[in-house]
Amino acid sequence: xxxxxxxxxxxxxxxxxxxAFYFFFNSIQSDGMLTALQNNQKDSMDRDVDSIIPDTxxxxxxxxxxxxLEDESxxxxxxxxxxxxxxxxxxxxxxxxxxxxxxxxxxLKVNADTRYLNRADxxxxxxxxxxxxxxxxxxxxxxxxxxxxEGPASNQKIDxxxxxxxxxxxxxxxxxxxxxRIIDYRNSKRFETIEEIMNVSGIASGKFADIKGxxxxx
Length: 218
Hints:
This protein is mainly α. The chain has helices at residues 2-52, 56-73, 98-104, 165-169, 176-188, 205-211; strands at 75-82, 88-93, 127-131, 158-159, 215-216. 46% of the residues lie in helices and 11% in strands.
């Protein structure tokens, strides 16, 4: 009888152990399946997110290229020469004023002629700006232009004591600046001979030779 009791106890223990082992094994498998299922769901969600989030790398590169091209389109090149400390070609933004360009060129020299210089002017692309020195012979202090080669429109000589600025400018080699100088001179002292026109700054013997047959005094 005692033997049977021991045998029953052992049997029950084995059954309980087998049941516990089966439950534990199934639990591990369930956990593993749940983990795998969760991982699969996470991978699927990641793929879904990747599919709806656009690839911004190419878009960013294109935007940067467009911005760079737009920035370059806002830049112009201007050539400045003459009485500046560092003449040369400068790249500046559109709408830049002349005084900013002068600063970029190292500023004006002490002998720069600024009487007809408008520092508030807006410079333009491919512009050639020339700053003359005081008493230098020049026609336009801002941009170089070809000198006039034709004489007065008519065969009549121009009276340098009475001619208008436009009439004086019709003379060969006499531009706006020299015409104003002639007028300023005669306002302070009347021309007594046509040779006195060489007293005007910028008109030397060579230029006088070109115009002496076209001018007179009354």
